[in-house]
Amino acid sequence: MGRIWSEESKFSQWLAVELAASEALAEGGEVPVEAAQLLRQHASFTVARIDAIEKEVRHDVIAFTTAVSETMKAAGCAEASRWLHYGLTSNDVVDTAQALQILESARLILAGLDTLIATLRRRALEFKHAVAIGRTHGVHAEPITFGLKLALWYDEAQRARRRVEAASEDLRYGKLSGAVGTLAHLSAEAEEAICGKLGLKVAPIASQVISRDRHAALISALALAAALCEQCALEIRHLQRTEVREAEEPFAAGQKGSSAMPHKRNPVVSEQICGLARVVRANVQAAFENIALWHERDISHSSVERVILPDSFILTDYLLAKTEWLIANMRVNTARMRRNLDLTKGLVFSGQVLLDLAAAGMLREQAYQIVQGEAMRAWNEEGDFRAAIEAHSEVRAHLNKEQIERAFSVERQLKNVDALFARVFGHDAA
Fold first, then answer.
1. The CATH homologous superfamily of the domain defined by 347-407
2. CATH placement of domain 91-251+264-340
3. Catalytic one among 137, 259, 263, 393?
4. Is position 220 annotated as part of the catalytic site?
5. Average pLDDT by consecutive 10-residue portion of the chain (430 residues)?
6. Which of 100, 242, 267, 367 is 20 to 30 A distant from 309 in Cα terms?
7. Which member of 6, 59, 187, 258 is catalytic?
8. Residue 200 · residue 129 · CB < 8 Å
């Protein structure tokens, strides 16, 4: 990913646009065919020379075209260099080339998402029936399976992929319509021909630049992919806490967690993922602020994009790889999950007891009062909620032993796991 956003790669894409333009214009009779051929054969550059020229002219595109013209002169083709950048303005080249960089980068992001999606699917199926306690507000709620957590992330990852794909396709556009977008120096047919050679569509209308709402949508899509990584990592961080210990990130042989405390196994990769996701998310604001430009264009967006585009792509690519590694290799303690589920001695079945009492004829308000009363007593005294329910005379008046036992059934709570997996993964997964 870093290579795509290197100076060498950027200028290579600029040159690709320039050469496509000269060839398309030659085919349209506006540029000598021989000149276009010579440009294709001999036009080149070095980053060092572009940098040296830019220090003097203080304009990167002029520095680029000057450096390329010098290579044509050195090859004995100075005359052909007259047709380099013919009819174009700087952002005709910059925006069109940037679209090529974005598309190449998006392919890597989509590949990373595909790998993560496959890993989430595999591990979701692996732990489909691994019973655990679901938590709301960080507090025990009702039974869940660990596979359902992973299935939820899989579903989010699918949406993240669709967003990145759609946003990158919305940037599969070039523009060569000139300084204020009026096609003053090139025809519409020429613009279409140039973009076609580059595998791009033509922006229907532009100012000097392609509208930046497209770029803001892309950065938003990357930030949402990074937020998915954070979602996974944050959950694993919580599950690795000493008092929970249901899952943890890998800890390699020879790895050390603390300089002072030899026992420590810290979720450092998960914490790194959570931290770096914030950086990608912060870039969204800058991308949105790039949308509003003065009149037909200023360059307030340009300096920002030199940071947020490579940084967002490089960080998202890194985060996807780290998250996939984390999910693929995390250690899962199913015995501890079951132990934590049983920790409150049936308290997490209070909702089912309430429903069963109501179904058996007890007024809901009365049932809630009884169940909550026993639940709070068990909570405060660390008592046995199930035993208290079984011994409660008003409960026994409405529910027999078998019905009470069924109210505390994990299997009953999780009877629709197969149906949920079928929704997410298809019926073969069920």
1. Fumarase/aspartase (C-terminal domain) (1.10.40.30)
2. 1.20.200.10
3. 137
4. no
5. 97 98 97 97 97 96 97 96 96 97 98 98 97 95 97 98 98 96 96 98 95 97 98 96 94 73 85 97 97 92 95 98 97 97 94 95 95 94 94 94 96 96 86
6. 267
7. 258
8. no
